[in-house]
Amino acid sequence: MTNSSLTTRYEYGGDEFVFVQLSEAMSLEANFKGIAITRKLKERNLEGIIDICPANASYMVRVDPDILHPDDLIRELQQIEDSMKDLEIEISSRIVDVPVLFEDPWTHEAVMRFRDRHQDPNSTDLEYSARINGYNSKEEFIQAIDASPFLVSMIGFVPGLPWCFQIVRQEKQIEVPKYVRPRTFTPERTFGFGGAFAVIYPVQGAGGYQMYGIAPAPIYQKEQTLPDFQDSIVFPKQGDIFRYRSITREEYDTIRSQVDAGTFTYQKKEITFTPQQVLEDPEKFSEMVLRRLYHD
Amino acid sequence: MIKVLKPGLQTTVQDQGRRGLYEIGMPPSGAMDQFAFRVANLLVGNHPNAAVLEMTYIGSELLFEQDTRISLTGGNIPPKLNGQSVPMWETLEVRAGDVLSFDFVRSGARTYLAVEGGIDVPLVMNSRSTYTLIGIGGYEGRALAAGDVLKTGDLHQCKVAAGTTIDKSYIPSYGKNHEIRVIVGLCSYRLTEESRQAFLETEWTVTPEANRIGYRHNGQRLKFVEREQPFGAGSNPSNVTDLGYPIGSIQVPDGVEPIVLLHDAVTGGGYATVATVISTDLNRMAQIKTNEKVKFAAVNLDQALKIRREQNEIFNRIAESLSS
C-alpha cells in the first residue's frame, strides 16, 4: 500500500460542488487521505464553503461560487494534498463497542420476505455471504465480523448511517454484492453489509445491503434524549472505530430496556492514532484497539 | 392563524434549506424553486429566509383567521380568493374569514405561498424546512393535513402595498418541453462514449417517480465501460465505491432511467454520477411534471457561473423595483 496507487480526479458537481475522487477502489489509505485533506480544509476556515463531506475514497465540498470560485478551491485542495504526501497526520477519534444481535427474528423476517430479490433465494443472507467469502459456516463468518474492529469511513445516505470498513488486510476483507433488486423495507437498526462495507440503518426504509442482524442501541435519535445524542442527532463520526460485538438475545433485551429508560450509553474510549500505525500492521492495531476499549 | 381546510396533494413548509449538515447525511431540503420562493418573500416584505408553503400539483384550501398580505409565485396553479380569481406574482390583501383555493394546475408543478411574517414553525437545526423522510422540520415533520392550524411569525421587514407586482418580463414561463443545463463530469468516465452522447441527445420522459427526492427519467438504456470492478465498489457496472452525491447530480442505476437527485435526496451511495444540474436550473427542474420531456444540455463551469450571475441580477432588479 503506497501513495502511488492513488490518482486524484477533480470534478465539478454543477456550479456549487467540487467532487474529488482519491481512488476508484476502497482502501484504508484512500480513506485516511480523505480524512486528512478534509480536516485540513476545515481548519483553513475559508469563506464561501457551505459543506465539507468526506466519503470512503473521495470527498465533496459545496461552495457559494459567488464568494469562492470552484477553481480557487481546487487550487487550495491540490496544495493541501501536495503538502501531506506521507499522511503524517494524527487522527483523534473514539473506539466504540457496538452490540449486534445476529440472526434476530426481525431482520430474519425481512430476509425471508424479500427472497425473490436476492441472488440466492434458497439460503439466508448470512449463509450466502459466508459461502461466497470462503467460510465454512455462518458462525465462522459472524466470528470474522466480531473479531476485528471497523473504521467509520463515511456518513451519509440518510442522517447518521455509518459506512464501516474493517481494519484487516485486504485479502481478509469481506466483500458481498447488494440485493439484485432493492428491498422496499429494512427494519430500523438493521446491521447490513454491501460491497466492502458494514452499515447500520438509522431508520426503517428501503435498502439493498445483505441483512445479518440488528443493533439494540440507536445510532440516530431525533429526540436527543439519550446522553450520547446531547450534541447531535447522529452518533457516528467519520474516523470512529466501531467494534461490532456479537451479543445474546438476553443482552439485547437488557440494552433495549436501557434505551427505553433513557440510560443507555455506548462503551467508548478516546484514541489518537496515525494512518501509518494502521497501514503497517492492521492486525496489531486492531488488537491494540480492542485492548484499549475493554481493558485499559 | 391559517386553518388548513384541504391540504392539497403535497404541501410542506419550506425555507432556504438546512445548510452545512450534508456530512452527517442530512440533505438541505428547502424550497425546490428557490427563485419563486425568494420573490414570494419579497412581495410581502419578508426576511429572505422566512418560511413559505410549497404546494405540489394540487393547491391547498386555506382559511385565513387574520387580516394579512400574501403572495403566490412559481408554477401556475390558478389561485382564487373566496372563489374569485386572483393574480400570481403580486401582493394580495386578505381579510380574516377569506378562503384561498386553487384550480387545476395550468403550467409548472409547484406554487409558493408567502404570508407576512412567514409561516412560524420551530427551527430545527437552523431551518424551518420539512424533511419528511425522518419527520423533522416544518409542521410536525410532515406534509399538511386537513385541520392543521398554521401560525405566522415575526420575519416581516417592510410593508408592501397590495397590488404591487413585478415586471412581466421577469416572470418565468413553464412549458412541457424542458432544456435542463448540466455540467457533465463526476464519474462520467464510467459511461461509454456513445452513451455519453446518448445521454445528451435523448429526449427523456419524466416518470411518475418525480418528487422532492428526485426525478426519474425514461428514455433509453445507457452503457458503462466494461471493467473489472474495483475493490469495494459492488458488482453492477453502474456501481462505484460509495461516494457523496451533489444536489442535482444525475445517476443511472444499472444504466436504466437517469435519476436527478434533488433537495430531499440521499446524500451518498454506490451509483456512478455522470453530470450535475446547474444551480439556476434546479429551480426549473422543480416546475417539471410527470410525462413532460427533458433534454440535458451540457455547459461548462464558466457558462454555468455566467447563467448564475444573470439570474442573481434579475433577482436584484426585482428587489430594487419593489423597494423604490
From TrEMBL, chain A:
Q: Which residues form a coiled coil?
A: none
Q: Keywords on this record?
A: ATP-binding, Hydrolase, Nucleotide-binding
The record ties this protein, via Gene3D superfamilies, to: 3.30.1360.40, Cyclophilin-like (2.40.100.10)
Which residue windows are transmembrane per the record?
none
Q: Where is the Carboxyltransferase domain?
A: 8-227
The cross-references to Pfam families, in alphabetical order and at most eight, read:
CT_C_D
Q: According to the UniProt entry, where is the signal peptide?
A: none
Which domain of life does the protein's organism represent? Bacteria
**Keyword Electron transport part of the UniProt annotation:** no
Q: Which PANTHER family match?
A: 5-OXOPROLINASE SUBUNIT B (PTHR34698:SF2)
Q: What is this protein called?
A: Carboxyltransferase domain-containing protein
Automatic annotation (TrEMBL), chain B:
Look up keyword Cell membrane and say if it applies: no
Q: Which InterPro entries match?
A: CT_A_B, Cyclophilin-like_dom_sf, PxpC
User: Is the ATP-binding keyword given for this protein?
Assistant: yes
Pfam families membership: CT_A_B
Instruction: Describe the location of the Carboxyltransferase domain by residue ranges.
Output: 23-314
Q: Which SUPFAM superfamilies match?
A: Cyclophilin-like
SMART domains, alphabetized: AHS2
Q: Which UniProt keywords apply?
A: ATP-binding, Hydrolase, Nucleotide-binding
Q: Mind telling me what this protein is named?
A: Biotin-dependent carboxyltransferase
What taxonomic classification does the UniProt entry list for its organism? Bacteria, Bacillati, Bacillota, Bacilli, Bacillales
